[in-house]
Amino acid sequence: MNQENLNFRKGSEKDIPEIWKILQQSIERRKNDGSKQWQDGYPNISTVESDIEKGYNYILTLDDKIIATAALIFNDEPTYDVIDGAWMTHEDFLVVHRVGVSNEVAGKGFATKFFQIFEDFAKKNEVFSIKVDTNFDNLAMLKILEKLGYSYCGEIQVRDGARKAFEKILR
């Protein structure tokens, strides 16, 4: 697939059905991988609608077809206030949540590319830290974070238990 036809943009109301379809595919992939992450009714369609409404949702398109989705939030993640460990920085940061990739492109490097785009997006907004968390058994995400040089900072607590927390400094 030709990555020259990639476009990163904010999601809109008209994108909700496709975003939700991609997240459902990602939920099913987590289940098939044996992960417990996203197996409790979250995220759901209301989550997607809320992300769009708040301006958090961003998508990646290939030839104008949505292939990936994520919530990108600046400086606002209350669950990150308490960490069993330590964040590397205490400056402005970009939080990455709810990353989903369509089955059509899963395993082809687009999630990694999406994260590289997040890094550029943060820097363009003069933010030089990205924070992200994932379940202990989400091996696909753990592999991406390791490959891209994210540092393990400790554990945070979310609605259904502990998550591994990571940070990458972009300077």
Produce the secondary structure layout:
Layout: E1 6-10, H1 16-32, H2 45-54, E2 57-62, E3 65-74, E4 84-85, E5 94-101, H3 110-124, E6 129-134, H4 139-147, E7 151-158, E8 161-169
Parallel strand pairs: 5-6
Antiparallel strand pairs: 1-2, 2-3, 3-5, 4-7, 6-8, 7-8
Task: Describe the fold and architecture.
With 171 residues, the protein is α+β, with helices and mostly antiparallel strands. The protein has a single domain (3-169), classed as 3-Layer(aba) Sandwich (Aminopeptidase), CATH 3.40.630. 30% of the residues lie in helices and 32% in strands. The chain contains four helices and eight strands, in the order βααββββαβαββ. 33% of the residues are buried.
Helix content: 25-40%
Task: Please name the CATH architecture.
Answer: 3-Layer(aba) Sandwich
The topology string of helices and strands comes to: EHHEEEEHEHEE
Radius of gyration: 15 Å
Count of individual helical segments: 4
- Beta-strand content estimate: 25-35%
Give the tally of structural domains.
Answer: 1
Q: For the residues shown, what is the average pLDDT?
A: 95
Give the biggest beta sheet. 8 strands, mixed
Remind me, CATH topology? Aminopeptidase
Contiguous runs where pLDDT drops below 50 for at least 5 residues: none
Structure summary, number of beta strands: 8
Q: Reading side by side through the largest sheet, how are the strands ordered? A: 1-2-3-5-6-8-7-4
* Overall 3D shape: globular
Notable characteristics:
171 residues; alpha+beta; Aminopeptidase; eight-stranded mixed beta sheet; 4 helices; 30% helix; globular
